[in-house]
Amino acid sequence: VHNGIEYADMQLIAEAYDILRTIGKQKPNNLGSIFSEWNKGVLQSFLVEITADIFSRKDPETGGFLVDYILDKAGQKGTGRWTVESALDLGVAIPTISAAVDSRALSSIKDERVEASGQLDSYGEQVEIETDSLISLTHDALYCAKILSYAQGMALLAKASSEWHWSLRLGDIAAIWKGGCIIRARFLEEIRRAYADNPVLKNLLLAPAMRQEVSSKLRALREIVSLATKSGVPVPAFCAALSYYDQYRTKALPLNLTQAQRDYFGAHTYERIDKPGVFHTEWSNQENQ
Amino acid sequence: VHNGIEYADMQLIAEAYDILRTIGKQKPNNLGSIFSEWNKGVLQSFLVEITADIFSRKDPETGGFLVDYILDKAGQKGTGRWTVESALDLGVAIPTISAAVDSRALSSIKDERVEASGQLDSYGEQVEIETDSLISLTHDALYCAKILSYAQGMALLAKASSEWHWSLRLGDIAAIWKGGCIIRARFLEEIRRAYADNPVLKNLLLAPAMRQEVSSKLRALREIVSLATKSGVPVPAFCAALSYYDQYRTKALPLNLTQAQRDYFGAHTYERIDKPGVFHTEWSNQENQ
Questions:
Q1: Theoretical Cys-Cys bridge with A258: which of A161, A280, B74, B126, CB 3.0 to 4.6 Å?
Q2: Nearest-CA neighbor of B10 among B51, B38, B44, B39?
């Protein structure tokens, strides 16, 4: 799960980078300063720190910025995939982590992407936004998406713990991660505190402090996803984080239709909102209508 | 894979329903007419046909529309999950199908969602759009997302075929599905034709007819995702379809940064864009900067 969260953190940072370079036209030296600044606030973390370092590094051979010469074909050792497989087994949704794993898979078919890029247009529009606003919105969207991603990872741990009787203390896990690992970050202290206040918290988003943080940044996340969507910058992990929030907080999802369809073609039955029990309808019998 | 595609089809239809009922304020009787109309065009399919039937069905007990009394808690027999697991094993990205599986998982924790709905606000905005435009944009977005979802499913079959030496004839598979199954649809004839023209097609999106269809509907998909994002209607499968397109058609993804990070913290090495070979940088050595 640690590595799944790490994949998501890295993918969210990559998408923030893409927004700033593609919509905001920021060059690596500016990006280095931006990430360095971000590392002083709520995003303070090992990954943001090294990202700032990376953008500042010059390529000794060409004199350009080294990051611009690195091939966008990301490898994986399979640990992110294991996290997704565990989540599938347990029936827990971790869409931001899945999006990160899928993004690495798509990055790896570089030759096919180069071929496709000559044939498939974006049909995106030029979006106009002041650079300072874009940087600030991207910062807030990244922080919000990061919380939503950790909420998914912790929900997976909580389910694994109850399913397999592990009695995990999630606050201690956050404290251990903070001690030293790739996802070490100031933010883990907030998570530790949330579980200290309520060890049986069902989802991180229901902790008052987390709810407050997410709610103050949610408009930024909506704005960034909308901007990227219009302009054609792919932001699968940002989107998945936002959809997770919107699905989690929605009392009535449209999957009543899904249940009706399943009952129609497979007699899988359905439940009702107004009384207990299991029901089946003879949908194709026109006489009953 | 058939069932994975079926999950995605059903989830995309559910999201279109949610957009029309939540943003467009459409009631089941109108929705029945809309889907019935859609079933005469490019979306003609068994699932769209039964969706129209479902919306028209009255509940004999209450006199209301039956769909409004069905609980939004969708079951699954595990076949969609198997598709996602196969894709993970083969390293193929099928994000729209994953989003459909995740959506069923989130639908199943109804009690938790009801609790969360009282605590988590949407911070979405009221979006203003004429009903006829919304219906037409939703139709085009649904068709576009459907093509993008089938492209993912067929890419998975192609990879499985080459990896395990199955010599699958993908056009024949489309023709068999068209013959009779839950995803039977007019659109499968287009797929059959695409593989008849080019049996070794790498991705459905590269077939000229498919490219044309997607490109003519892509603006609608961007518009609908942006509208839903702003208003707080969760559209994970629509988002995942659009992100898939945007990642697939992008020559230079931001995962050059991911590779730099992996090389920084784990010495995983990277490739360069300007010459062959495998490289490593001593990132943390400040002297070299």
A1: B74
A2: B51
State how far residue A189 is from chain B, nearest Cα, in angstroms: 22
| Ordered DSSP codes for B153-164 | HHHHHHHHHHHT
Measuring CA to CA, which residue among A193, A203, A108 is closest to residue A151? A203
- B56: which chain A residues are within 8 Å (Cβ-Cβ)? 289
Q: Which of A13, A117, A229 sits opposite B242 (nearest CB)?
A: A229
SS3 A284: coil
pLDDT tens-place string over residues B59-102: 999 999 999 999 999 988 888 899 999 999 999 999 999 999 99
Cα–Cα dist B23/B126, whole Å:
8
- Judge if pTM exceeds 0.90: yes
DSSP state of A21: I
Is 0.90 exceeded by the ipTM? yes
For an interface test with A, which of B39, B120, B278 has the most A Cβ atoms less than 10 Å from its Cβ? B120
Q: Could you report the per-residue pLDDT of B4-39, keeping only the tens digit for each?
A: 999 999 999 999 999 999 999 999 999 999 999 999
Collect all residues of chain B within an 8 Å Cβ-Cβ radius of residue A257: 13-14, 17, 51, 54, 67, 70
To 5 degrees, how large is the angle CA A253–CA A255–CA A258?
165
- Which residues of chain B does A53 touch, with a Cβ-Cβ cutoff of 8 Å? 264, 283-284
Separation CA B288–CA A174 (nearest Å): 34
Cα separation, A43 vs A150, whole angstroms: 13
* List of chain B residues whose C-beta atoms are within 8 Å of the C-beta of residue A85: 85, 88
User: How confident is the model over A46-56, as pLDDT tens digits?
Assistant: 999 999 999 99
Find which of A229, A230, A263, A271 to mutate to test the B interface (most B CBs within 10 Å of its CB).
A229
Q: What value does the mean pLDDT take over residues B148-173?
A: 91
